[in-house]
Amino acid sequence: MKSLLSLDELSNEEIMEILNDAQEFKQGSSFQLKDKIVANLFFEPSTRTHYSFNVAEEKLGMKVLNFDPSSSSLAKGESFYDTVKTFASFGIDAVVIRHTKNRYYDELAHISVPIINAGDGTKDHPSQTLLDLMTIYEEFHTFKGLNIAIIGDIRYSRVAHGDIQVMKRLGMNCYTSGPEEYQDAIYPHIHMEEALKEMDVIMMLRVQNERHEEKMSLSNEEYLQQYGLTMEKVYQMKSHAIIMHPAPVNRGVEIADEVVECPQSRIFEQIHNGVFVRESILKRTFTK
Q1: Domain spanning 126-266 has what CATH number?
Q2: Of 47, 53, 57, 189, which sits 20 to 30 A from 3 (CA to CA)?
Q3: What is the DSSP secondary structure assignment for residue 73, as one 8-state letter?
Q4: CATH superfamily of 7-123+272-287
Q5: 183: pLDDT strictly greater than 60
Q6: Rounded CA gap, 211 and 67, in Å?
């Protein structure tokens, strides 16, 4: 059985194996893990990731435990480690964990069951990166030479950090854009006007106000006009270019309402693909 903590652990070939399995699931392939019990331990709010894993687990025939931190012994002072160790002691077969701390899994070296990282702090989000890759590959049938601009709150985004690292390995050219206060200097910067004309993929990010020490200096309306994606800006994109967003979407902030489901948007297709990717991850956990 194998954990999935970071895509750094996987070769490009192993990443493609997961994507190929996910595509087979999407085409109707069946696989069952009926004798397995999995616990979803989300120490941070989540809709898409949590319930996408839940649907994937149910489709694989797994028995599922969904942890609610607000009604758990965390309120009585129990530690993160002891909470996870408790679930492992129940005799479950795997845990899916999201936590606000970067590399939370370093604390769990003595946990005896596979750990699937559903997002850690601002560092990584392996299953999101994989579903983003699946969506791009379905569209272009390659990664090599594709240009992507990730626009918005880069500094606090686990999606941006995870995606860029792997996309570069696979041959994509990655750029970032957005307010200077939310940028990360380690990535090549591109102005939004240039990105609209040159990129094959425009990925918008949510402004993560809950992670900021200070309130955003722009109003929502100012942000949308300067750094958000409106239909006026969509018309400047290449005809084959696509729009992505890891969601949740702040309509009217980083993306205009009418853009969310416009013909170039793949936002809900990303969510759809997330189930198949997570089925593939779970299959890998118990067969590799």
Answers
A1: 3.40.50.1370
A2: 47
A3: G
A4: Aspartate/ornithine carbamoyltransferase (3.40.50.1370)
A5: yes
A6: 23
Given a contact cutoff of 8 angstroms between Cβ atoms, the answer to whether 67 and 80 are in contact is no
Which pLDDT tens digit goes with each residue over 218-262?
888 988 999 999 999 999 999 999 999 999 999 999 999 999 999
What is the number of other CB atoms lying within 10 angstroms of the CB of residue 206? 19
Which DSSP helix (H) or strand (E) runs through 98?
strand 94-99
Closest to 230 (Cα-Cα) out of 199, 265, 198: 265
Domain span(s) for CATH 3.40.50.1370 in the chain:
7-123+272-287, 126-266
Tokens at 253, concatenated: 């902030």
H or E element in which residue 135 lies = helix 126-140
If residue 66 lies in a helix (H) or strand (E), which one and from where to where?
strand 63-66
Q: Which residues contact 112 (CB under 8 A, 6 or more apart)?
A: 88
> Position of tokens 């918005």?
152
Is the pLDDT confidence value at 211 over 60?
no
Confidence category of residue 181, pLDDT binned at 50, 70, 90: confident
pTM, to two decimals: 0.94
Q: What is the DSSP letter of 229?
A: B
Cβ neighbors of 5 (< 8 A, separation 6 or more) are: 105, 115, 117, 126
Helix, strand, or coil (residue 37): strand
Q: What is d(CA 267, CA 262) in angstroms, rounded to the nearest whole number?
A: 10
Report pLDDT digits (tens) over 30-61. 999 999 999 999 999 999 999 999 999 999 99
| Mean of pLDDT over the chain | 93
CA distance 197 to 234: 10
Question: In this structure, which amino acid lies at residue 49?
Answer: T
pLDDT of residue 122: 83
